[in-house]
Every structure is written in structure tokens, then in C-alpha cells.
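step 4 of 6: structure.
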Amino acid sequence: MRAAILAVMFLSGLGLSRLSSAVVRVGTHKQGIVGGTKFDGYEKSPFAQLTSSSCAAAACHGGGHVGEVGSEYTTWAPDLQMEGPFDPHAKAYRVLFNAHSQTIARALNIPEAHKESLCLKCHAVEETQSGHAISEGVGCGACHGPAEKWLPEHTLAGWKSRSNREKEELGFLPLSNLVTRSLTCAGCHVGDADREVNHDLIAAGHPRLSFVYTSFHFRSDYRHHWRERTPQPDFEVRAWVCGQAATLRAATELLQQRAERAVANHPKAVWPEFSGYSCFSCHQKIGAENLQQGTGPAKRQAGVLGWELWSNTAAKVAAEVSDIAYPGVHKPDLHELDTLQKLMEKPIPIPKNIAVQAKRAVAELDVWLAELHDADMRKGEYRIPADAPRQFVRELTRNALSKDRLKLANLDWDALNVNFLGCTAMYHAAGGYRTLPEWSAPLSDLRVTLKFPLGFNGPTGFGAIERERVRKQFEELHKLTKRPGETP
Amino acid sequence: MTNGCGMWVRMMGFLFATATGLVLSVSGVKPLAHATAVQKDAPSVRVKQVKDPLLPRGVDDVDTGFTFCLGCHNEKSPIDVKDNEFASRFKSNEFVLLTEGRTWKQQDPHSAASKVLGSPLGLQMAGILGYDVTKAVQCLTCHSIDKDPVAPVPNKAHDILTRFDSSEGVTCNACHGLRKPWQKEHSADKVASHGGRTIPWRTFSPEKKEELGMRNLRDPVVKAKLCASCHVGNPAEGKIISHEIYAAGHPPLPPFELATFLECQPKHWGYPLNPALKFFTDTGFQEYAGEEFAKAHANWRWELYRFHSEEQEISLVRSLAAGAVASLLAEMRMIALEAAHVVKGQGGGVDFARFDCYACHHDLKSPSDRQARGYGGPPGRPPIKAWVAALPGVVVDHAAGLKNFADLAKEFHPKWEAVQKASLARPFGKPDELEKSASELAAWCEEFLKKLQDDADPIYTKMESARLLAAIGEAATSKLWTADPEATMHLTWAYVTLRRHSMIDIPPDKLDALKKTIPIQVRAEPFTTDGLTPRIVGDTLRQRLD
């Protein structure tokens, strides 16, 4: 069914990026099987999507009391509770009608965004059998899995006692597993074989993707329709680690797809694909005082773009501290990823080499994710050490600074920001101001300094003075997170 | 020396076999026999490799010393011939200004070209690039006279009269010709051989002067190609500015508009417009060359000096046209060669520096002007520098109305569009298409320049110049180019310069308003600092471009 849709789309020749992603889809579905362990969030289910209203019965998930168990649909659906926070997923479809979407569509030669598969893939549940259900936006099935098979089953008494494996076989995605969950999110928020926000789309006006699971989860206006069972700090610390790993995996796989497309010399192949680089590698002012020379180990050749600084800057820290978040998990070996980064950080990388190397890097990341996935299945069995957030911030600030801490390791805004967002996740995980009042000032200052000026989508005016301010605050946090008795 | 070579390899990122060959021959001391090997190893590209015919033929054929020139060309002001025996005999003060050296040394930024390599910015660049920019051949090739494949770099020690001295910057001979023979010949007293009247140099044909090694910079096309070789680029001489060099801090090369750059220079040359240079009047020439010679060479102004009287043609306009097309040629050659390199499977790609800087280097705004404006091709693909085609486009459209140029002019726009299309077919262009289209456009430029060079009749009469001026003004304000700051600046420069040259004043309030958005000239007087050292353009221009 899905293949048939693809074939039709491919032949119909509408929309540039969609075409290129369509090519990727053919025959490249991932087998998320590593070392005999299958973990989900990769594979497309063969089952049909049902409408979200199928879930909305008052006795099921439409209970009518926002925020309560049994009212998941009510909480998600924006029309049922107009005031206050909302679930942005429910509005994903209707934004396709606004003026900004029309500007984007015009630049891309798309007649109507709300009918365009390129857009609907993420802004709705495109495969919903009943066409009008597309208007529901990112409904239940988009994340929980197509309900054709599991809908009747999950209402039965035996559902809860079934294993995740059995549920997955029916098309249900057990999102309580943080790896499954963050991989599912990354499918849209980073991209996958089917879906991508490439630079054509961004230049047309689509916001860039900059996914950090913990930041998205705790968005102040995000009305959750579920309750986390894992207590803090465990939840946020682990969610940050899994989110980093899943984001990097999605970005690397996307790179592999793009490279393979370029190797196949597909007429619509885009290479190099700018959206895989830090935006502000290029979108920066010209002039000697604005140079972005890193001082870290991955110092780039002058004038070369930083590859996926958003996805890989803090992910390497997450790799280092995996065994704190999940005792027993090995620190992953990411040398293939390092090689990939070196290959990518050349004036114009060679797609043939990248395709091969990215595949290796994905396999390497899968080993890590598989371990995290299994460990997360057993997360109720143990707690993380209470000072894990401190250790994480210690590592993140070390990552942000040069060895002597007199410089920033990487001047790029993306790199600075993901380090910062990691630190804020840890701050909140640990209890925020009540437990760590002394972290508050440096974090607030980082937030203010890294913020885009009003009316801009980039750190306009972010220069030497701002960088020094950022460096100072990272240094301050680094000092604050020194273990008692530890020499600096 | 192998070091120098390795440095080069690292710096360029994408090397052209020719450029490599050039450096190899630099390092290998072997004289010009190498030049042919260079050609053989070159990628099979359609773009023409241009070897400078004026390169010295061997170590003994080189003379670069600035001091040698100062012997005659270092007067403070126009001289009193009574004090100067040589000048009084040969009336050299009526032929040249004799102040050239002093002007160059005190006011001309070319004389500071290698000094800037040791400036704080130069040091910063060296730190980032990982090599000494004051010694690296890829820097000295433009910042000094180090384009010569004959002598290995370290041998260019300071020898006041004859040897290379990179620290002198872009010296007299860097432009006028590095070879010895002309330098001897042009001042040689050969009274006896020339009917007892004077040295014969001034009546030599441009071809003969070139044979002796002097570049005929009076020829607008020769001049335009030479200037563009540094101010835009010339891969055959290793003059390529790469994005790596920019990213290390090199100021952006501003759009190169020859007429404006000429007008913003402290002139060490005597435009034939200068009434003090009586040689260039009919009577002056006749007196010098003899009645018979003058009679036999009725069109002597063009034949020997490649200009027409201002009544017949405004010389600066021919320079403007030549400069516009020569810049485009230089850029297309670089693109074609870099693309050819990729096509041959040697990796890399067309350097970012060939693309419009501001296509990427801009603030991300919301709402966005670019998104509101829409895109020519797919959104988000950097186009190649558009300024290179802006002024040529106007020059060509104007030339379409001229009999000799009409056919050639028709071919321009399709060729330029092909280059643009290839550059947008994917990010940083499709190498095969870019190579083909850029080579074709380069060939077209060559043809146009040849016509411009060979056309002995006045082209840019007062009337035609006025028409061209109006067309440039229209283009500068047209929607086509207003979205491209460099193209607009390029056209504006051309427009303002021509108007000033034609003494058509621009109302001061209009000019002030213009200045607020676009720098209207490359540099303005005073040309020197208090210490009588040339003012460096880079800093101020960078501010303007920021």
C-alpha cells in the first residue's frame, strides 16, 4: 500500500523535495535489529492508520477533563479547551493554511500546502484511510502507531500484561521507552528516510529543525496528555541522553540517505545539503572580527562548514555519561562518527565516501541505542545517582570550553546552544532553583545572551563580546559543578 | 622549497594541475621549459590557458628592482628641464610625468601590498591558515611580484637593482613587465641610430615593445586583463582567492570596476588629457617623431598609444567596457577550471569564494525580504557572483546597437543564463555544466575583448558614451540588480565615475543620499597618511562592505 502511494507520488512529479525523499523511501526501510534486539521507532508499520476520533469516546480517551487519565484525546484536541496551553501537534495541519505557509508554498511552486504530500508527511497523519482525518493534524496514530490491529486489542483486559514485543507486532509503539519515543519524535523533528526539512524548504521560509527532546518535552505551553511515571532527576537525565542519541542517529541516517541519492546521481539530488550543517556556519557576518575558529580537537579548516553541530556537539557528552544514566550501559565507541565528521568538514564532501561512512556511523550509533533501549526497559529497577545532573553539567561545560577554559571550544552558536540546553535540562532535572539557586544566574545569562534578537531567526550581532560572556558563564558553571575536593 | 609546495597544496583545497605545475616549476628552478609540461598536465578543459607572454625567459632575464626605476621616475613635481640634461635633450617631461615612482611609493596602495601581509590581520591569517603569509607564494603572487616561475622564492632576496624583493609590493615591473630588455631599451640613448633626433622608444609599435617585454598598459584591454588578474583572479598565475583565505580574515575583494579603480588611484600615469604632456598633441608628436614619420602614421594615436583624442572617443569608457568584460572573463576562467577539476574526479568542488558572498552571509530575518521577493531557481541555492555579469550585460546591450558588435552581443545573455542555471542546478553548481557554460562564456569574453582591442575606430564617442551612461544608470536602479548589493555597487561605481569624468555633476544632496546606502568610490583623497605612506584601502573598504 505504502509502496503504491510512493510510486504514484514519484511519477506524479509534484514538488521538488518530496520527489527526492520519495526516492529514498523505495526499498530502504530500516531494520532496527542490532545484536538480536529489535527496538522500535524506526520501522514503518504495514498497518493502516485510523482517525484520532476513533480514540475519542467519552469512556475511552475523550473523558472531557483536560489533563486527567481517560481524557487524553480531550487534552490533545485544541478545540475542546480553547484557553491556555495546548498540544502543538493538534494544530500541525491548520498552520498549513496561514500566510507564512502560503509564502513557503509559493517559493517552492507548491499550489496548496495542505494538499502537498511533502508537508502532510509531518503536519498530518498522511496515511489515514479516511481522507478528511488529515485535518486532525498529528493525531494519535502518528506517534502511537497505526491502530488498525491494536485498537480493538488494547481495550481488552489482557493488553497491559502483554509484552512490548507483542504490542509492537500489532503496530503499537511503546512510547514509554525513551529510545522508542525519541526516535519517533526524531522522525519528524529531525527527519527520516521519508521526511526531511531541507535547505530549499528552509530558504522558502520553513523554520529550521533544532530538536532537543528535553527542551521540547518541557515547553511551557505543551499540554501533556500523559503522566511520566519516572521521577526526576531520572526522567530528564535519561530523556536527555536518549534524545541526544536518537537525534544524532536520525541526522546521520538522513545524511546517509542524501549521500546515497547524490551517488545515484538522481536528478533531484541535492548535494551538499546545507540543512545538515550549522546554519550560522554560513549565515554570519563577514569580517575578520567575526571569524568562527574553533579551538577544540575538531578544529576545522578555515572556511569549512560545521557538520551537524546541533546534533553531535552534546551527543558526544551524552555518550560519555551513558553509564551514569543507565548503569551497565557501555560507553559507546563513536570513532566511525568522528571519521564521518572529518569527511563532512571538507569544502565539498564526496558523496560516495560519505554514503559508506555514514552507514558505518549509523550502525555504530545503533549499538549504543540498542543498549539504551534495553536499559530503559528496566528503568524502574534502579535510580540514577543523585548528583548525576552535576556530573553532566561538569562534562557539558568541559565540552563547551577549551582545555585551559580561556576560550570556547567551538564558537558556533549551534554548538554553544546545545551545550547550554543540556545544562538547563540537568538544572531542571535536579530540581531547579529550589535545589540549585547558584546555577540560576549563569544559566539565565546564557539564555539571554544566546537568544535571537527580536525579528531575527539567527544570533544577529552575536560577536566577540557575547562569546566572551558565554564563555564566562560556562566557566562559572564548570566551577560550580566541581566535585567537593576535586582539583580544577 | 618542497615546503612551499606542500603549503600551496594545503591552501588551495582544489588544485589545478596548472597551478601545481606552476609551483613545481617555482620550486624546481628549471626555467621555462616547464611551461610546456604545465600545459600537458593541465586538465582537458575547454577554457583557454593563458600564459603570460611577458614572463622572463630565465633568471638573467629578470629585473624587478624598484630602485632602478627611481633613477628617472622619482621627481617631486614636474621638472624644470633646465636642471635636467637628459630631459631637456629628449623632452621626456613632455612624454611622461617623471614623478611616477614617488607617487607610487607615497600614495599608491600597490606599494604597501606586501607590507599588509605583516599587519596584525596578516598575522591573524597566518595563525589560522598555518603558514607564513609573508612568504607564501599564494599570497605573494598578488601582494608582490612573485608570479614568476623562474626564480625559487627564497632566492628572491633583496638585491637592490636586479633581484626580486617581495617586500616592495606590487612594483613598477610587476605591471609594466619583469623582463630586462625593455627596461634597458626604453631609456637607451640611441641618438645616432635615429637620425640624431632622440631615443626611438616612443615610436616603437606596441608589438615591438611587447617583444622586448614591456606590457602595453595604454591598451585598455591589456590593462583590464592585467588588473583583473589580481583583482579578480588568474589561476594560471596561482592568483586564486579561496574561501579558506577569506575565512581566515582576508577582506572581501570588492567588485572590480576598472574605470572607478583607475579614477580612485593617485595617477602616476599621464592621461593624454594632461596638457603638460605635449608629446601627445599633433605638433608635439610631429616635432618628436619627425614630419615624415608622422605623415606615414596619420593614425599614430591609436597605432602607437591606443587612444583617440577625447573629441573622438572618451578613453575611460573603453577601459570601463574592457574592465567589465575582463573581470567576467577572469571569473569564468576560475569557475571553469575548478569545475573541470571536479569533473575529472579529483574531488573538491567549485570554491565557495566563486559564489555570491551575501547569498549565505546574511542575517536570518522574520519576515524575510528574500522570501517575500521569491527565488530565481530553487530557494536556498547560492548563485555565482552576479556582479561579474551586471556591467558586462549593460555594455553588451549597448554594443548591440553598434555595427561591429551586434552579432556577438546577441550571444551574451543565453551564455550567461546557462552559467547561472548550472550554478543553481544544485548547491555550488553542477560541475560538468558549469565547466561547459563557463568555458563558453569565457571564450565569448575573449572574442569580445579582441574586437574591442582591434577596433581602431572610435567606439565610445561622446554620444555613445552618454547612451551607455544612461543605460548603466537604469540598470543600477532596476529591480534585476537591486537585490544584489555587489552588482548594484558595481553599477553605481561605473555610473558615478563616468558622470564625474564627463563633468556631469551629480547634485550633492542626491550624492549624499546615495552614499548612505552604497560606497560610491573605492577610495578617496587624501591618498597618504601624515607620514607620507600610502593609505591602505582594505580597512575602510571592509567597513563599507560589512
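step 5 of 6: annotate
 - The CA atoms of residues 304 and 345 of chain A lie 6 Å apart.
 - Residues 234-263 of chain A form the longest helix (30 residues).
step 6 of 6: archive
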